[in-house]
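hey can u check if this looks right to u? its 210 residues, i copy pasted from the old doc so theres a chance i mangled smth
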Amino acid sequence: MTLAEILTSGTDFLLALQSAFYALLLARQIGFGRFSAMHFWPGLFVFSSAAALAGGSLHAMKASQIAVPDLLWRFVLVFVMGASFCLLAAACASWMARRRRVLGWAVILVKTLLVAGMVSFSASFRWVVLDYAVSFAAVLLAVLTRLKESGSRALAAGILVSFAAAYVQQAGIGLSEAVNHNVLYHLIQMGGFYFLYQGARALVTKVRTA
């Protein structure tokens, strides 16, 4: 049992709690009744929480020297793809006209299914990272065209911080053997989720008061 794996699983669980809390706050703000297109925003955090919980469980099992089932790793990949889908779907719900939303969601669904197909043949994290990066980049481009609108700057900050977190993880940058690239990624991503939540909250408020 290594300290690095313990810290990695611990920060993963913290990330899961943070995401679940934001999902609950947004769902409460939108309402728990009939489904609304804006529910994709809390959906983003629900899937992010599930991915972090599964990832934390995976690292905890490694720390305890328990064999990690392949299914658990595939759950991580599926949950990350779900978060990616919800991010783009939420952006469509927030900024696209009602008539165009269905087309936008159809394109997003096709993209997600293509990535799922790739993952089914090769359960490599690189496909999911690529899918996640494309989704974040697309939303960032949309945000940059409307920086004066409510929530846009917070969303831009959240996406940029998330990109920085992903770079740290993929580049293997750590502060020490214990505080490795995964731990640092989780800590930075917490900041990214904070800004993403603030942006989503502002957009939900704007739609509800429109």
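The CA atoms of residues 27 and 39 lie 7 Å apart.
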